[in-house]
Amino acid sequence: MLDLTQVLSYSVALGIAAAVPGPGLAALVARSVSSGTLSGFCLLFGLILGDLIYLSFAVFGLAMVAEHFNELFEVVRWGAALYLCYLAWQFWFANHQAIEVGRSVKKRELLSAALSGLTITLGNPKTIAFYLAILPLVIDLQAVSLQTWALMLVPLTVLVLLSVNALFIVAAVRIRHLLSSPHAQRHLFRGAATIMVAAAASMLRR
């Protein structure tokens, strides 16, 4: 089991990493502004699921698999970077309309938001760096058992990410009236697109 120092260190490090601007946070704010709270939380569900996948990779030592399957991970890296560029293109050239507060969101839009969140996280260099480089510095992964992963790390990760990102969703929804015009949305979405292109370039550079 993890001691209190490790729990606090992991929580603080993860909270800071979640609050640092990146493609996931940019997409979360943009989606919350354009489609509302429910859509924002669906995208957040995808983001958290991606984090849990990388957490599992780190805990169970699957990072070492990359050394033996370098070609496969190279394909994944390029695929993730290209997907981020595709999302950036969509954000940049989106046809924005005035926001209708209270508009019902279709199930297809919610599913799309969740899948986008998952894919963005899997292709996010910041997330990869945290779980495969920073996490081993704050937690002794050799001492993490299946029980510790399931009963401590997974719930703690969900709680921290939900708490931090929910604040951004609530803030984005509260300022929707300030960003209701197509002009304001264009600036917001193009800012998110720029962050995604930067993330893709960072991934390819590494």
UniProtKB/TrEMBL annotation:
GO terms for molecular function: amino acid transmembrane transporter activity. Its main location: membrane. GO terms for cellular component: plasma membrane. It is found in: Cell membrane. InterPro entries: LeuE-type. The chain crosses the membrane at residues 12-30, 42-63, 75-94, 115-139, 151-175. Pfam families: LysE. Keywords: Cell membrane, Membrane, Transmembrane, Transmembrane helix. It is a multi-pass membrane protein. Coiled coil: none annotated. It comes from the Bacteria. PANTHER family: ARGININE EXPORTER PROTEIN ARGO, ARGININE EXPORTER PROTEIN ARGO-RELATED. This is Threonine/homoserine/homoserine lactone efflux protein. The lineage of its organism: Bacteria, Pseudomonadati, Pseudomonadota, Gammaproteobacteria, Pseudomonadales.
